[in-house]
Design brief:
By secondary structure, the protein is an alpha/beta fold. It is built from nine helices and eight strands. Bound molecules: zinc ion (2 copies). The site of one zinc ion has 6 residues, from loops.
């Protein structure tokens, strides 16, 4: 039986899509049923590299990966949703609007959707994209880590904490070009102190834009002997 938590009554959990308190009867896993149906979950054919929804089903790769696919250091990615206004608002509230609870439900959805395939692919450990200490102090939490924790709880794939550390408090990547992003992320990450030997890893983040962040992480992971780096995000742009 589910334990009743008094805080659920004082602060009823809010649906990540509409931000209204969810009522048990009409909700599933923290989402209103109707909101869950509206979520732009990627269901059709995906790009073989980054996993975004393909606009042309006859192709193997999206237009971005046709151009830059070979330059990526990560091996392959999966994302839950195509980035749109709903995802933009949701991720904004998750990061800056004090709605860290969304990560619980989004992490579960990521696990329900992708854990079986990732386990078949031999995934051994999950690494959340680390935030610099300064930002954690400011925000109070790292949304990628909360997503990763929930994904791990529901998938049984272990979380590798402190596997990678963030050395540089990089500037926000939002308005930067691809080259500026790569430059900004140089030496941003470093392998932390750990005894775990990972062959196949999953990097978890909230959003995939150009792949610069995942690549910067994949680079240090591969230097440390990790053979395969998958990524998993809540949202990715369209093709
Ligand atoms: Zn809702
Ligand atoms: Zn792609």
């Amino acid at each position: 039986m589910k334990k009743i938590n008094i805080l659920d009554y004082l602060y009823p959990p809010r649906c990540p899509v509409c931000d209204r308190p969810v009522l048990q009867k009409e909700s599933r896993d923290g989402f209103c049923i109707t909101c869950l149906e509206k979520l732009p979950v990627i269901k059709g054919k995906r790009c073989c590299k980054c996993g975004r929804a393909l606009s042309n089903f006859e192709k193997e790769y999206c237009s971005d990966c046709l151009k830059f696919g070979r330059t990526h250091i990560y091996d392959k990615g999966l994302s839950l949703c195509t980035y749109d206004d709903t995802l933009r608002d949701m991720i904004y509230r998750l990061k800056y609007g004090n709605r860290s609870e969304y990560a619980l439900w989004l992490g579960k959805l990521l696990a329900d959707t992708f854990a079986p395939a990732l386990k078949r692919a031999g995934a051994e450990g999950v690494i959340a994209v680390p935030l610099h200490e300064k930002r954690i102090r400011k925000r109070g939490y790292n949304q990628a880590e909360l997503l990763a924790k929930s994904f791990c709880n529901h998938s049984g794939i272990p979380l590798c904490e402190h596997y990678v550390e963030r050395m540089k408090d990089t500037k926000p990547l939002k308005s930067m070009s691809r080259a500026e992003r790569q430059n900004n992320l140089k030496k941003a990450f470093k392998i932390g102190r750990n005894d775990v030997k990972l062959n196949v890893s999953i990097v978890v983040d909230d959003i995939y834009t150009t792949g610069s962040t995942v690549d910067a992480l994949a680079e240090v992971l591969k230097e440390a002997g990790v053979q395969t780096v998958y990524f998993l995000t809540v949202a990715i742009g369209d093709d």
